[in-house]
Amino acid sequence: MIRIDVLRKVPEDLTLHWLVGVEQDDKKGWRVRIVTCGVSSGKFAMWSVPIGLFPVLALGYRFSEGRLLPITYGEYSEVIVPNLAAGEEINSSDIPPELYSFEGKSHGVQRLLRYRVGQVEYLVPTMELIRSLFLHNKTLANHIMQPGGIMTLFRPVEPGFHPRLQLDYTQQMPVRSLKRSFILEFSWLAVDPDGQRAWDSVYERTFKQKYMTFDPPDLHDCGIKFRGVRKGNQWLILEISEFTGKRVPCDVLYFSHPSLGKTITVRMPKSQPKRRGPDGGSSSGDVPVIDTVGSGSRTDVHQPALPILTRTSIFDREIEVRRVDKKDRIRVIRRRNKGAAGTSENEGRTGKYRGSGKTPPPKVSVSPESLHDDLLPMEFQVLAVEKGEGADDLRRLMQVIRTMANGLIDVRVLTALCRLETGQAFSMVGRRQRLCLVAVFFQKKTFPVVLLDVEHSNKMALSTLLLRFKGSIGLRDIENHILLILHRLDCRGGRWDVTENEGDQLAHYERLRKVMRPDPGGNEQQQNGVWAEKLRKKLFEVPGRLDITGESWSDCVVILK
To answer: For 26-43, what is each residue's pLDDT tens digit?
Structure first.
């Protein structure tokens, strides 16, 4: 994860509540204005951060001492928009306060696109559309407000369809960004006429404005998977995780980069490692701190790419993507030099030094690279390669929970997806983090109940875990306990580690072997109703307790956030 420097000293957790356009600083660099809301105080505050952070700034993200937290609340759903370009542009002042509250503060003049599909209305902030369509790393974010800036990242190609397309990237594109999913997305926004026009319109329609907007691409039957908030038949989309409807502009795609080539291995004696401080690389196990004051970073085409995989790249068809090697690349493998004085002793000390946590976490920059700046650059990788059917199962379970919630009295339900921390094999699905559905039920007469369901990708069989807390407990303490349980799950290779002693102290744990039994040929809405009723009984009809649903199941009301 990341830690944003300007938010580190805030004494409470913060929720990213709104994005308020972009602005230029005194050095003509571009920055994003963000509005946060204190989780405890409810106070709003505005901050200015480098535009390079834009790819990892989605509404609803939460920060603790500047650190991005893995649990993100909201309802998850999907919709098929007939034409993405046909949305009606509205102002943020048009958002109903009961849908998304600004607590009496000014809504501002930010732009949203309104889509009506059937009887449901979807409001999508233009900044979220721009972020999810175009900003797949910090390099693209730093070029989105530069007229013609994308042309400096590759050798220009005639827009349109190419049976054989070759993209020759320049040194300005970090080589570690060149994954298959990123290359396909880049080809669409740089070569496809619709993608290119939409990209160019961001600068044309945003420059010198207090808001950020653009002309959406002409994507028909565009499928969108998202996290949002809902009230009645209205949705406000906070984060988009998947788009469909984009067409790849070629049959075969070749790409090259000045730093890519055939590898030649050379073995050399291992030299004594150098200690690297906060300005020279990672010297502790802590997460990197993103600088928010400086205007640039040093140049490094091999800069590390931090994986924060929140989106999936989907195109109309699969094509070949091939690399073109332009030169030989020498890879040096260093071996231990037994003759070097003090090598083993010093290396041992260095290992303790690097892992001791005594040095401050490294400070890195996502601002444009410059010959006059010293901070280390860092890139983001936000596109996940593997989609995973297990994630779809979690969204289906969220629908079941929503159906069940519509029949509960005086129960506040919070749903979220949590990304497992990296480190063990179980926490990863291919190259992305495994997800866990978190549902927290707050009741007036009893203590909170939590449901945890871990993604079942790679044919992983794991029961759903139910936590019944035995005393009053706040949301933050609940979250910390959930993260501890998931950490133990990861360390045990995908097996729950909850003991009776621990349960006696804090909560009672119960495994639910099969919450849902999907039937591909059945009626989805009817199945959801059946599963919702079964889940309600498992959650709330406990011997010795009153049924919180009362006598009438259909006349109940739920407070759902």
So the answer is: 888 999 999 999 999 999
